[in-house]
Design brief:
Elements (H helix, E strand, L loop, with lengths): L1 H24 L5 E7 L10 E4 L3 E3 L11 E7 L8 E2 L4 E3 L5 E9 L5 E4 L3 E5 L5 E6 L3 E4 L5 H12 L10 E2 L16 E2 L3 H14 L6 E2 L14 H5 L2 E2 L11 H7 L29 E7 L7 E3 L10 E4 L7 E4 L8 E2 L3 E2 L1
Parallel strand pairs: 1-7, 10-17, 16-20
Antiparallel strand pairs: 1-2, 3-6, 4-5, 4-7, 8-11, 9-10, 11-21, 12-13, 14-15, 16-18, 18-19
Helix pairs in contact: 2-3
């Protein structure tokens, strides 16, 4: 009899426990709100409310305006030092109410100049013709990538699955990863692998499809030494519309005899004859190609796919001259500019 009474008591306890276990074991989920701040721009965007941890989509920012500037992305800090969020991209509702601040980039520093493709004679540093290269139309950044632009995209990237070997520095004397002090100094002290991962992140921010993929067809998002094999065996998918480094041939096609001097800052009033500034001066620039011998005969959109031990860097003081740097090499005199087709 005692045995049955004990079983009965245990059953009653189990029923009572099951009726309240959800309240005991499952924490209450809060509904939080994301608000948007135009951050010196004009326009209003309605915020969104959702349960924490549930997916939501960041506003596009297309309705915001700021004279002379382009909306780039969102950040949890007005100065861009917080976590970055891509416009129109999904994220999980934070665990507390959050304000996202618009991040703006001055228009002149993200301008792109269109180059109509043609056949041209690719020359070396002695001005000797080495081969003929027919270039397809492309758009090249008018200026080298500024540290301000690098930093804004970098903050977005590290909050969205990217990892970098280097945080970049402002000009030749900046401190790695610091807040930008000006909008006009170029980014330096980034290696070649950093630049291809950054190009993919910038493509995402601008609503384009990244061009640098791994063997599985996924965008490369990690430039650290631990991912060197994937980076160095990158697949350059030219069918996609995202940003990339110029090839050495594209770089030389665009170069002119302008000479702005090495100052790690931009000179908007002094573009070269093709409208693209600082190709003939300022810092050296990473190109996509691996360094190697010139090809023979006529070529179309030629680049050296490698891999070898180093990548081409260019500077227009002698537009035929090629230098090289290891893919993990960083210097305060090497930056980059971007192109797309």
């Amino acid at each position: 009899m005692k045995k049955y009474i004990l079983v009965f008591i245990l059953c009653i306890m189990a029923i009572i426990y099951s009726s309240c276990s959800d309240d005991i074991l499952t924490p209450a989920l809060n509904t939080n709100r994301v608000s948007y701040d135009s951050n010196t721009g004009s326009g209003v965007i309605d915020g969104i409310s959702e349960v924490e941890g549930f997916p939501v989509t960041a506003a596009s920012g297309a309705s915001l305006t700021k004279a002379g500037y382009t909306f780039l992305c969102w950040n949890t800090a007005a100065d861009g030092s917080g976590e970055g969020y891509g416009a129109g991209l999904s994220f999980l509702m934070p665990s507390e109410d959050t304000i996202l601040y618009a991040q703006w980039i001055e228009d002149i520093y993200i301008q792109e100049d269109l180059y109509t493709g043609a056949a041209f004679n690719h020359k070396d540093e002695t001005n000797a013709i080495r081969y003929t290269n027919t270039i397809t139309d492309f758009q090249l950044g008018r200026y080298e990538v500024t540290y301000e632009l690098w930093y804004a995209v970098y903050k977005y990237a590290i909050a969205n699955g990217y990892s970098f070997a280097n945080a970049g520095t402002e000009g030749t004397t900046g401190t790695a990863g610091d807040l930008p002090e000006t909008d006009s100094k170029v980014v330096t002290t980034v290696n070649w692998r950093d630049t291809i991962a950054w190009c993919n992140a910038y493509s995402e921010v601008r609503g384009l499809t990244p061009v640098y993929e791994n063997a599985a067809g996924s965008p490369i998002k990690d430039s650290r030494d631990s991912n060197s094999i994937e980076c160095d065996n990158v697949i350059y998918n030219t069918a996609n519309d995202g940003y990339s480094l110029p090839t050495s041939g594209e770089w030389q096609f665009a170069a002119s005899e302008a000479n702005d001097g090495l100052n790690a800052s931009l000179a908007p009033s002094d573009p070269n004859s093709f409208n693209t500034a600082n190709l003939a001066g300022n810092v050296w620039e990473w190109c996509f190609d691996w360094f190697g011998s010139y090809p023979a005969g006529g070529q179309i959109d030629y680049y050296n796919p490698g891999p070898s031990s180093s990548h081409i860097i260019r500077n227009g003081e002698n537009i035929g001259h090629r230098e090289w740097g290891n893919p993990d090499q960083t210097e305060n005199y090497i930056g980059f500019r971007i192109k797309r087709r």
